[in-house]
Give the backbone structure.
Amino acid sequence: MPGQEPEDFGAEILSEKSRMIPGLPPYDMDEQLLPRQPRSPCCCLAWTLLIGTMNSLVFLLNLLLMFVIFTVVLLPTIVVVYFGFQCHSQVLHSSARYCKSILDDNSSSALIILGFVIMSPLLVVAMAIYCSLARRLQLLVCFQPYSLALYKGGRWCHPGEGALCCARGCSRQLKAWV
């Protein structure tokens, strides 16, 4: 081996070790060893409706949470743009006292521009808050696959994830090959 470079020597050892491992074991032993039986057509339809309803409710919950967060975070932008459009003479030209005494066309234009300028960073903040909250509550884990409707013996949650909507009997041990 005097003619080999050190990099070649390390690659040779790595390839020898990889030949010694015949193959990786199944990803999830519980699901791989037990064959799953297909459901009857009526049972499959009922489970499909149940899972579809549950996934729709989870989607609506996520949508409601996103709407509330974006509304609260973007409230300053909404207010500033609203007053800018309300008091501008070319748009709505309200007869309110503050439009006549405080805001003229130039200040209304400035409010509109300010509202649209601060909207971009507030959108980023709102999305970061929603993503952080959805990750912390694990709301996206609550979506169930439709294979539960097709086959008997599936689980209602994914192993290793303890989301709010998952059954309590699920395993909390993470199984992944890295």
Q: What stands out?
A: Residues 166-171 have pLDDT under 50 and may be disordered. The chain has seven helices and no strands. Helices lie at 6-20, 29-33, 41-73, 75-87, 97-101, 105-137, 147-150.
